[in-house]
Design brief:
The complex is a heterodimer. Chain A has one domain (3-226). Chain A is built from eleven helices and four strands; from the N terminus they run ββααααββααααααα. Chain A has helices spanning 9-40, 47-65, 69-90, 100-122, 148-170, 172-182, 184-189, 194-216, 226-241, 246-266, 274-285; strands at residues 3-4, 7-8, 138-140, 145-147. In chain A, helix 5 (148-170) crosses helix 6 (172-182) and helix 9 crosses helix 10. Chain A starts with a strand and ends in a 10-residue tail after the last helix. Chain B has 14 helices and 15 strands. Chain B has helices spanning 2-18, 50-63, 84-98, 109-122, 152-165, 179-194, 213-221, 233-245, 248-251, 261-267, 269-272, 287-300, 306-325, 330-338; strands at 33-39, 67-68, 71-79, 102-107, 125-130, 145-147, 170-176, 198-205, 226-230, 253-256, 276-279, 351-352, 358-359, 362-367, 380-386. In chain B, helix 2 (50-63) runs parallel beside helix 13. Classes of the chains: A mainly alpha, B alpha/beta. At the A-B interface, helix 1, helix 4, helix 9 and helix 10 of A face helix 1, strand 8, helix 7, helix 8 and helix 10 of B.
Chain lengths: 295, 404
Amino acid sequence: MTEIFGIPVQAFLGQLLLGLVNGSFYAMLSLGLAVIFGLLGIVNFAHGALYMIGAYVAWISLNQFGLNYWVALLLSPLVVGALGVVIERLLLRHLYKLDPLYGLLLTFGLALIFEGLFRDQFGVSGQQYPVPELLRGATNLGFMTLPNYRAWVVVASLTICLGTWFVIEKTSLGATLRAGTENPALVQAFGINVPVMVTLTYAGGAALAAIAGVLAAPVIQVTPLMGSNLIIVVFAVVVIGGMGSILGSILTGVMLGLIEGLTKVLYPEASSIVVFVIMAIVLVIRPAGLFGKEM
Amino acid sequence: MKLKKIGAACALALGAMFGLGAPAQAQISGDVIRIGIITDMSSLYADIDGPAGVEAIRMAIAAVGGSINGKKIEVLYADHQNKPDVAAVKAREWFDTQGVDMLIGGTSSGTSLAMAKVAAEKKKLFISIGAATSALTNDQCNAYTLHWAYDTYALAKGTGNAVVKAGGKSWYFLAADYAFGAQLQADTSAVVKAAGGSIVGSVKHPLSASDFSSFMLQAQASKAQILGLANAGGDTINAIKAANEFGVTKTMKLAGLLVFINDIHSLGLATTQGMYLTDSWYWNRDADARAWSRKFFEKQKRMPSSIQAADYSATLQYLNAVKAVGSDDSDKVLAHMKTTKINDIFAKGGFIRGDGLMVHDMYLMQVKTPAQSTEPWDYYNLVQTFKGEEAWNSKAESTCALWK
């Protein structure tokens, strides 16, 4: 059998595919972070908690109200987006004129509070969320058996990522958003309500995290810790991609998922740190990140 | 400049997430018997011990009336976050400044090994409850450490033998990448080989891994009959989930080497039915255990794990010893504990061996099918009881220098 790096080609392809699945999660979460940082200048450490809440909204709506996965996929981003509105209006709004440090500390504190509340309520063992009926089963690809649900995750998250990128970079709405953050006074003078726009941007970022949470719910145990287990890696992805670069965070997310997947075969013990090693190297060579502009 | 500051803040926040935080409940020392417990209060092992484990200790204190000879009994607790360094620093602080008389180590092997060293240096009694590593009473045994609930040797012997006997000859291991996973894999490998089985391969995963799919693919490629899970808590749960999703369970059987009732509760019987597991205790074992568990349930709204029952047992036996010798001096209390039989809701006819191991029965269980389960938390069928010393390593096998 042919081998790549001493691994049979089949196993190699399988791991690449799994890397792609994880990479699309990274891409989706880092995209939300990049949007919020790029447009608001807030380092949103609460992102992992919002992702976790997104998953819990899905779980609660199924178990308390009997609402299925597809409803949750719409409902959860709305609920978490509304929570985002509250956070932005009530708290973050007061911090824009201050150093970014304050926003970071505030959102980090919020993350700890949310996580603590859910831990108190649900415990850490977590809850099961069933795979929706339509996506059950697996497809034999020859080199591996791919659960249909995972294939759906890749398709759904890459579609959402590219859609978001398109809206922000290629439409007039996106242009207004970018202009509003660059020079709010001038954009306001054109009759655009900048504060509302900023609120909706944060809510949009939060909604992206919630969608990622719903997508993840059937794959991993829904637990209060699911956000903090992932958020550190996602931050590394954003730093590698370049803070605030939207396309950069999508591409970096997918790429790092692939690299991490390969590490799990070549040297599994290093799989939890490989992302950070890459982050260190990138910061030394290109401090602004792979796709970032020098400040 | 802006970026630099953000970088510094990120570092700060990461530090807070990984290292600091979770203050201990501190009191001013008086004329009191002070019990400390350092365990996982917030992470992947928090359900099997955690705050409910502290509650079990409080139940033991209440069982002796809250005080002994007019001296109040107090409990301190802290979160070690599964980090040996955090555990060791907290243990040292408690012995030095808080007047802790007896320390309980909850979950996680690395933290218990670290605390055992500190306690031995301070000549204070340390009881490890839910750390699994058999090193605590072998290579690293010491005169001040007791090991209460189970160890990797007993877990391996129970499940390993049962699975090989049932036809599972070739094994592949998925092991948590720290002291516990390595020890559990090593002990199980020895049992499997002795029973005529073979080890095909293994893979290590980081603690609290977020995704197990890649490891499942590797296990599948090994063509082994049995996938041995040398991990615990949230890691076991996610591994079992991924095994089902990727169809690993169609070609391989899972053997959970350290599975708790909380894990079964979380995954549900449909996913876990038929699985063999070894545990030191089960809430529905006998009338005593049931009665105590119902009391526990009233407070916690869930049935106790074996670790939580062992928290209760160890505290109760310690307090009984303090009462009997009229002192909380570690040497005197230990001498008394080592010559006293243990009979409580956890152990029947238990005793403490020269290596510090509390010898008691262990149980091989099989998870019920959903149809067999008649009430919430009714999850296990008892397959086999390993009586007393039969469950544990023998004096000849022991590598403990104190027990020769």
